[in-house]
Amino acid sequence: MSNKNNKVIYIGVTNDIARRVYEHKAGIIEGFTKKYNVHKLVYFETFGDIKAAIAREKQLKGWIRAKKNDLVERLNPEWEEISPTGFFDSTSFRSE
């Protein structure tokens, strides 16, 4: 997720992306995303296994900002807000 100006990136794991996006937009959860107005979904990946999802989250959090930007821009070059139900095939979001 990002903020309005795409200056901030938030990476997280959830078992319900639609609920989590709503929580970010509504400012329900205190912390980083509320403080920096991060409520625009610009990229996501889906996993059938929570351990794999957490491993991927850790991997992405370890990347430099430029690499994270490249990942988003491959499929969402304008950083447009996307639906949490996805209009992209999430399997196409996998890249290294």
Secondary structure layout plus pairing:
Layout: H1 17-26, H2 32-35, H3 50-61, H4 65-75
Features:
single chain; 96 residues; mainly alpha; disordered C terminus
Walk me through what this model shows.
- The longest helix has 12 residues, at 50-61.
- The chain is 39% helix and 0% strand.
- It contains four helices and no strands.
- It is mostly helical and 96 residues long.
- It is globular and about 30 Å long.
- The protein has helices spanning 17-26, 32-35, 50-61, 65-75.
Strand residue percentage:
under 5%
Query: Low-confidence runs (pLDDT<50, min 5 residues)?
Result: 87-96
Provide the residue-averaged pLDDT. Answer: 88
Count of DSSP E strands?
A: 0
Estimated helix fraction: 25-40%
- Tell me the structural class: mainly alpha
Shape: globular
Round the Cα radius of gyration to an integer and report it: 13 Å
End-to-end Cα distance, whole Å, is: 19 Å
Reading the helices and strands in chain order gives HHHH
Number of helices: 4
Please outline the major beta sheet.
none
